[in-house]
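Hi D.,

Good news: the full-assembly prediction came through. Inputs first.
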Amino acid sequence: MKKNSPLFKIIILFLCFILFDRLFWGELFWKIPNESSWGTDFFYNYNYEKNRLEEGSNHKERVLIIGSSIARYSFETTLLEDYLKTKGFDREVRLLSHAGMTPIDAYGQRDSIEKMKPTLLVYPLNFVDFRIFRTQELFPEKKLIEISESEMITDALEFRYAPQVKSAYPWNVLRDFSSYLNLENKAMFLSSALFSFYRYREFGWDNLKTIYNHRFSRNTSYFWYQGVQIPERVSTLGWTGRKFSFMVKAYMKERGFYIQIVPEILRNGPLVLKITSGDRTESFEFKETGWKQILLKNFGVGDLVKAELSDVFIPFDAEGDRFDYAKEEIGVRLQETFGLDKPNQNYHVIREERSEDLRFLDMTEKEYEEYFQFRLLQDREKRPGLVTMQLYKESKEKLNTEVFREFFHYKYLKLFTEEMKKRNIPTLFILNPENPYSLEWYKDSNYLKEEAQFLKSLEGDGIVFWNLHSYLQGKDFSDYHHMTYKAVEKMNPIYGEKIIELLKK
Amino acid sequence: MNFTSPLYLYFLVLLFLFFRLFSHFKRADFLVEGLLLLASYYFYSAWNPNYLFLILIPTVTDFLLGKLIFESSHLRKKIYLFLSICLDLGILGFFKYANFIIQTGNMLNIGLNSPLLDVLLPAGISFYTFQSMSYTIDIYRNNIRPEKSIFRYALYLSFFPQLVAGPIVVARELLPKLSNLTHIQCPAYTKIFWLLLLGFTKKAIIADRIAPSIDLLYAYPDSFTAQDWALGALGYSVQIYCDFSGYTDIARGSALLFGVELPENFLFPYLSSSFSEFWRRWHITLSTWLREYLYISLGGNRDGVIRTLVNLLLTMLLGGLWHGASWNFIIWGAGHGLLLSIERIFAKWGFWTFPVGSTGGFYQKMRFLTLFSLRRTLVFLCTTLLWVLFRSKDLSVSLLVYSKIFSGWNGFHVGYSDRIFLISNILLVFMGNIIGFRYADRISAFIETELSWKIGIFFIVWAYFVLSLSRETRPFLYFVF
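Then the structure:
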């Protein structure tokens, strides 16, 4: 081939393209600090964490927790790490999780997990992880025993429903599941495996946008609050209650900070924000909606100040994106990095207490039950977001007439177990606590008993199964499966004890 | 198989490699034609293998009828042509319009109350039916001789780059190109990459990213304000332009890889200063087909003003119906027909004409520029308003949207970032069009040059940028027509 021929040029340019792709999306992109919250993009955070854990070789002995949001909302790595340390086990505890991480995903990433060199692998699971509800949604008329497994696996590898498959383990999908893929999907996974831009482009820009916001904007357009923890707590989306307190930071004196005033809080007239510290007071009056800048004149850097709002509103009485089936009073919304001179990095693995975690504390069981119905099941025809909750309920009720079948995610959990045995990775499977209110729908079913038997049968050669399914009370859960922060505080020492028991072995 | 999907890319590259390889063999013409025909059938069957049977019907019948028309005398010629047209329109009518006719009958309550048929509209049927019809009509008109090889004729109807959504290329243009596939020594790589990347940018970066906001507006037509709807209507104009012209660019680029130059289908349509100019710039191959095979057959402008206007209206009405079986498309076509008729009447009365060019003093220049800009704006706004019919799922939604555009003072707003995105994309497309329009000659000269290192690097940077910004691909809007 002549050096000046167009074909030669195309080949060389294509190679440059691949090289640049590997360099930019494959390497440089992951060197950029992660300033996103967990909710900004699950899959970006997951891949970032995966790369971080795969790379580090000089780490302490590591307890690795993997799984879906079940893992994320049950374990708090700092709490657990501290607990282990107090018991004389100085171990690094790391969480590798994304929403919807199923046993198929875990199986697909077995090589990656091995690279992370865990001393102990912990995998909490729950009803949602086995995706039986999805099977029943796709085949509402059929019994589980009649459903074709291949259709379920194909569905579980669909980018639309499981975006992680494209970014987290495309080579393994091609290797392990090729027979379930049509040509269109094979081409997608091949591209994903060959080209980093294609693998990461769906979420690639989100962290860059966050970093841009942190450096050059007001931090008022964001997914989840990741500012300083304030004593009275804020909600996940950054809403305060009537009162909140904070320490004045240097940036607040220089550029001020921002709060969002919404129409609902101005229903009774202008809103007054009174800030006090000792005998010093400063008041701000707001008549219009929008993000408002607060410049403090009477307070210096380091002063601990208390803020009080003249009015609050209830999300259930609100409109637009403020409307929610929630009855706790909220006030104003704080900017994303409120109270931080420098934004947090790697905040995505941290779970802090939010005001939603406190809502059930003073409720009686009856009040909790009513609130549970109201938040998760009421007016479902008007609430498209509740489709999944309803689906879970119906699915659990259907399980009363189902026979357990070792297929689909159960099968891959078994294969995953075998892989862990082969690779000498001790693994603790936990059938994690479930809200007694939703457990009630199927707790006496044969299915559940047979499922527990199946999980028990996986034990041996370093694999341990632990059934905690009915361990907690209703008030410990914000929905069917996700724990409140108080429950996490309660559970982590319990998890810790079991981990210590296994580490001793 | 979507043009912006990875599978298409692999398909195209593999096919090109085999094409180049086969070009060096003995009986290369036969081999590459066979290869392209097989590839085209595979491409089509990727949607639904049953579609293949359907495309084989006009392939065989029109190929045979073409020969019979050519060989027959006057009356028989007419009968065979009539047969060919009946067959083509019969298939199109059954698959595309049967349910619409049944629905309309049921709606009018004329006592039929027939159940709807369980038929799925095969992709590209409107396009290849028109191509096949042009073949027999052209033989009847003695414009071409019948094709000798049925395989070449099959390739003409199924040539994958333009099979599903055009451009509609008449037999006398495309068949000679397909009979000479091996003559190209070195493909025009600069032009190919330009077309592929331009098309991909329009489709994946602009149209696909605008689409969610437009989908949201049309999913809840009653919920948004006039301001949002105005933006949404303008946004859809840009979306459909980028979607369809993007598809055409990729189709042209793909065909050029095999040495086949397909005609332009879009020439900056939103910069048109009259409705007739719009139709000379928008979906050019369809308007040309309609003019040549329908409007002129109806008598064109040869029989007086009234007859001309009737012909115009009828042509546009049928053009609307060609796009889809619904009252929306019929009214959309009628709307354009009406605008063209009014324009023609105004032009006749001298209302719609002014000296072309900007010579004269400052006052004349300003007057010319103002009038010209006003006319362009008017044409664009009217077209935009008519696109509402195109996008709405039925007439009631269209009417609701129109009422919201002109009186929707209350309601929700589209998200702030979506609004900014829509506005910036609308401006971007207009700027791109103005630049393209103004520097068309320079761009043409650039894309005709040989691929150099500099140009290659430019393409690589462009490709990387757009590929990184793109998202999961969406089907092309014109695939349903």
